[in-house]
Write a structure and sequence with these properties.
binds magnesium ion; alpha/beta; 8 helices; 2 domains; binds adenosine-5'-triphosphate; 6-stranded mixed sheet; about 280 residues
């Protein structure tokens, strides 16, 4: 156990969010989305972020990804400062890859070409190398049959799995996912979960995953971070002490039910505050 944790730490991916505040448009409408938020996410952790709608979860993810600046505080990846007072916006980098909710595959490229695209444009691999590695990775993910198809020819679930492979070909330290399975039916979602857990068991990449689905959060996560209503900060951490590899049998266990209840109670309390404050909708 000790040995495995040391290897994970060496591979990197520890995220430290230190007293981060984000105010949108400080001179104008002045929306405080994140307020003095601190979180420590271990290397190789599956970190699930839940909280009321509009509380500031995406804002936090975007700051880690480098899509926008923070107002105060610091974010570190391992010991590297991503953003802080001297550099309000993190640079975008291949060490942190975002998987978008609405998909972002190029429709005019085959799935293999999509997977190989990143390393080729970054110049980190030749076309031949990227295609060879892409093929291996698609095969490992059970997707070799669709490698030569176009995104429009496969299901949305299949496309989403390819997006994860596409993210991983860059060997990121952190995978950032913003409600990636939100619009999916329960069966497709369960296939997505199994496939993501398989990928995780192989790569042990740090996963920062935003969701409104508390069962999804407990099923996938090592820890579930419940955020307060806006402005967002950490309210509670639920430790998910369910051993891996996990399968769907745990969904009917008492331990699983109690953990979902624990998270639900905390989110509900915050959602109620948001509702009373007139925010958009409940979680
Ligand atoms: N570019 C922006 N300018 C001004 N306000 C913004 C901007 N982006 C987001 N906000 C506001 O910041 C707050 C947090 O938004 P954010 O999208 O981070 O919440 P969220 O927790 O991801 O919500 P959801 O669960 O609905 O996805 C909201 O009140 C939102 O309206
Ligand atoms: Mg969001």
């Amino acid at each position: 156990m000790q040995k495995e944790e040391t290897a994970r730490d060496a591979a990197g991916g520890r995220l430290s969010i230190r007293n981060v505040t984000k105010i949108y448009d400080p001179e104008g409408v002045n929306v405080m989305a994140v307020d003095d938020c601190s979180m420590d996410i271990a290397a190789g952790e599956v970190c699930m972020i839940v909280g009321p709608s509009g509380c500031g979860k995406t804002t936090l993810l975007n700051a880690i990804a480098g899509f926008h600046s923070i107002t105060t505080g610091e974010i570190y990846l391992d010991d590297q400062l991503l953003c802080g007072p001297s550099k309000p916006q993190a640079s975008m980098g291949a060490d942190r890859i975002v998987v978008f909710q609405h998909g972002a595959l190029f429709p005019w490229k085959t799935l293999l070409e999509n997977v190989a695209y990143g390393p080729i444009v970054q110049g980190s691999m030749t076309k031949e190398q990227a295609h060879a590695l892409g093929k291996v990775m698609l095969e490992e993910a059970g997707l070799s049959d669709v490698a030569d198809k176009y995104p429009g020819e496969v299901s949305s679930g299949m496309a989403r799995r390819v997006e994860i492979v596409r993210a991983l070909i860059n060997s990121p330290k952190v995978l950032l996912l913003d409600e990636p399975y939100r619009a999916m039916d329960a069966l497709t979602k369960s296939i997505m979960h199994e496939s993501l857990l398989e990928v995780y068991d192989r790569t042990k990449v740090t996963i920062f995953f935003i969701t409104h689905d508390l069962e999804e959060a407990i099923f996938l996560g090592d820890r579930v971070y419940v955020m307060t209503t806006r402005p967002c900060k950490l309210k509670k951490v639920v430790d998910v002490n369910i051993p891996r590899p996990r399968d769907y049998k745990i969904l009917s266990s008492e331990q699983f039910r109690l953990l979902v209840e624990e998270a639900k109670e905390a989110v509900h309390e915050e959602a109620l505050k948001a509702f009373q404050a007139g925010e958009r909708e409940l979680a």
